[in-house]
Every structure is written in C-alpha cells, then in structure tokens.
Amino acid sequence: MSTTTQYNVIVVGGGLVGSLCALFMAKRGYQVSLYEYREDPRATEFARGRSINLALSNRARRALQEVGIEERILKCGIAMKGRYIHNINGKNKSILYDPRTRQCIYSVSRNYLNQELLQEVERHLNVRTYFNHKLINVDVDQGRLVFLQTKNNTTIETYGDLLIGADGAFSTVRRALQQTPLFNFSQTYIDHGYIEMNINSQSGRAMVPNHLHIWPRGEFMMIALPNLDYSWTVTLFMPFERFKELNSPDKVLDFFKKFFPDSVELLGKRQLVEDFANTKPSPLVSIKCGSYHVGENILIIGDAAHAMVPFYGQGMNAGFEDCLLLDSILEDCNDNFPVALKLFTESRREDAHAICDLAMYNYMEMRDLVTRPSYLIRKKFDDF
Ligand code: FAD
C-alpha cells in the first residue's frame, strides 16, 4: 500500500451513508472516489418511493457534528419533542420523549440531507464523484470493481486500497461477499408494507406541531412527520393482505373513515383515492450479516450491512454511526485497513443485530402497546 494521503478509497453508493462516509474518508486525507448509480440528486427532481423525510436522532447528530455540519442540518430540520397519539375515540394526547431534559428528534428531508452531504463532499479536492455509474461486478480476491456507465452503456474497471459498499439494502457489494466461504447472512421480509401520502401545507397547519404523529390501530398504524413548508409526510404501515382489500375508492374511503376519521379531511378524499390507485405498497426488509468485511480491504456499511424495518427510526442513524465508528477505528490503528476492518466487524456486529431486533419490536410498540397502560403491557409479555 501507498502512504496515507495516497490511499485510494472507493465508496459505492452516494445515498445518505455513502456520502457521509466519503466525507469522513476525505477528511482523513485519502483519495476518494464515490460511485453512485442514480443521477446526481442535485440536478434532478426528487424520486418518490423512499421516505421523503426521516427522524434524525443523537446517533446521527454525533457523526454530523464530527464532520462539522450538524448545525447546518438541524437548522433545516423540525424538532419533534414527542409522539402525538391519535386515538380512534378522538381523545388525542401528546407523550413527550423526555419531559425532564426536553431532548428531541428532528424531522429532516432525505433529499436535502443527501444534497448537503454531496455538496460538502465535493468541497474536498481529494474526492471525485461519479454519478450514473452502476456497480455490476465485484472480484473479491483481486479487489476489482466493474461499473456500468449508464449514460453510454460502457463499462469501466477500477481498484482501490479500500472498497466500501454503502449501496443499500440490496447491495451488490454484499452479494459478492455472500458468495465467499463462512459469510453468514439472513434476510427477513415482514408481512406488512407501506405507502406514503401527504397532508398539504394548508391543511398541515391544523396539525399539532413539533410531534411525530401516530395513529396506532393494533394490527396496523399510520404516522406523520412534519416538513418545513407545514406539509406532513404520512405513512401507512399495514399487512399486504389488507392493502389488497382496499381495491375501490369506496373501500378506501370507508376504511379511512372507520380507522382514521380525523385524517380524512387532512389528507383530502380525492387525494386519498388517487394515492391508493397509483401506489403499490412497498416491502420492508431486515438484514443481518455475520461479518461486515471480507479479506483485507472490502467492507459494507449502512443498509448494505444492516437494513432494518423503519419502526425505530434508526436505519440512517445507525448508518451514520457506522461512519463515525470506522473513522475512529482507522485513527486508532493508524490507517491499517486489514486490522481496522476486523475491528469494525467485531465492535459493530452485536449492536447492529440488536438495533435490527429493536426496530422489529418497536412496530408492536407503536401500532399497539403505545395505547395501553404499562401494567397491561407487562401482562402481555408475561403471557408470551
Ligand atoms: P440507501 O439510502 O439505500 O442508499 C444506497 C445508495 O446506493 C443509493 O443511492 C443507490 O442508488 C446506490 N446504489 C445501489 N446499488 C448500486 C450499485 N449497484 N452501484 C452504485 N450505486 C448503487 N432511518 C432513520 O434513521 N430514520 C427514519 O425516520 C427512517 N425512516 C424510514 C422510513 C421508511 C419508510 C424507510 C423505508 C426507511 C427509513 N429509514 C429511516 C431507513 C433509512 O432510509 C435507511 O437506513 C438509509 O436510507 C440507509 O442509507 P444507505 O445510504 O445505507 O442506503
């Protein structure tokens, strides 16, 4: 390997975690190449299909602080100091997360965050970003990556001293690692999917501000997170079977009137019907790996390493924490990549598995247990 500043680091995936990781690596003085399949999000309309806003918590804040952009990001976030529970009987209530010290989480726009991270990455002269580059092949033994340049359908090959896969839940890098001996991996789809809707900025002013709103209904639930323009992004999580039953405008409206009566006017009847007609519910997957590296220079982080169901609001947060951890390990072991990767797997695995489990558990908490007095919750677990 070459001297510190000449290490070539390749990051695959310019989503939230890949962009932040590239920033950390650039600050270490490495030569960084960031490859992303999609167009540059700063040059295109935001693509629908992923959550439009996300809950950002302490885990992510610590990482953003380390690279010096926490304040800037929080300025464009909306503090959520607690849950606002919409009971079916109309008796709504606010439950503060931390009444004593008033800690809160923040609702931030995914697109804004991604753009700011890329902007910050590109301030560094030792970084090159390549959009419209899809990783199609990984030779684990040789440390060789092949990308398809989607604009002109040609391929390029590249090598690096360190290869970091931050290419999301369906990671191509991880798929290559899965084919190596002794690499353990598990993937679980839940029977529930989600669709996103919107309360526009006019109606949104009627919502109680600075809360994460939840409509818990036992088997399913709806949540809403605020946007800066007073609109709200609303997500309905429900078994696929139930989504299938809502196959006509009347059925959709009857369902909402029955289970989410106070949301019908906010969402708008016509919009509701249109959203259901035009949107297919998306699946939710949880992924665990036995290791996050193979050999001496290939590592996966973020959703590629530990995608989780979104009910704990920690997927991105945990991915940002990966970047912080990797950076501190590299610092402690003087940029010795083989040692650092091993240490990363060893120190991350237990926590990553735990947060995947907590995320799964929190669906039950949010859609059901949050409505019950604590003695009944204890009883439910005693019955288990
Ligand atoms: P991604 O965001 O998936 O980014 C991966 C990137 O890699 C993408 O840009 C993709 O285009 C690129 N890529 C993929 N394949 C290739 C390839 N072959 N070649 C090159 N590039 C490639 N987390 C929270 O912390 N808080 C929340 O409130 C929250 N809410 C959520 C709500 C929903 C409905 C969902 C689905 C998720 C939520 N999450 C939340 C989780 C969060 O979205 C993910 O954990 C986060 O996006 C992971 O970031 P990532 O960069 O690892 O992966």
From TrEMBL:
User: Care to name a GO molecular-function term for this sequence?
Assistant: FAD binding
Q: Which domain of life is it from?
A: Eukaryota
- SUPFAM superfamilies associated with the record: FAD/NAD(P)-binding domain
According to the record, the segments passing through the membrane are 6-26
* Group of enzyme by EC: oxidoreductase
What name has this protein been given in UniProt?
Kynurenine 3-monooxygenase
Q: Which UniProt keywords apply?
A: FAD, Flavoprotein, Membrane, Mitochondrion, Monooxygenase, NADP, Oxidoreductase, Pyridine nucleotide biosynthesis, Transmembrane, Transmembrane helix
Entry GO CC? mitochondrial outer membrane
Q: What range(s) does the FAD-binding domain occupy? A: 7-330
Q: Write down the Pfam families for this protein, in alphabetical order.
A: FAD_binding_3 (PF01494)
Cofactors (names): FAD
Q: What EC identifiers does the entry list?
A: 1.14.13.9
Q: What is its main location?
A: mitochondrion
Q: What does this protein do?
A: Catalyzes the hydroxylation of L-kynurenine (L-Kyn) to form 3-hydroxy-L-kynurenine (L-3OHKyn). Required for synthesis of quinolinic acid.
Q: Which family does it belong to?
A: Belongs to the aromatic-ring hydroxylase family. KMO subfamily.
Where does this protein reside within or beyond the cell?
Answer: Mitochondrion; Membrane
Q: In which pathway does it act?
A: Cofactor biosynthesis; NAD(+) biosynthesis; quinolinate from L-kynurenine: step 1/3
Biological process (GO) annotations held by this record are:
'de novo' NAD+ biosynthetic process from L-tryptophan; anthranilate metabolic process; kynurenine metabolic process; L-tryptophan catabolic process; quinolinate biosynthetic process
Membrane topology type: Multi-pass membrane protein
What does it catalyze? L-kynurenine + NADPH + O2 + H(+) = 3-hydroxy-L-kynurenine + NADP(+) + H2O
The record lists the lineage as: Eukaryota, Metazoa, Ecdysozoa, Arthropoda, Hexapoda
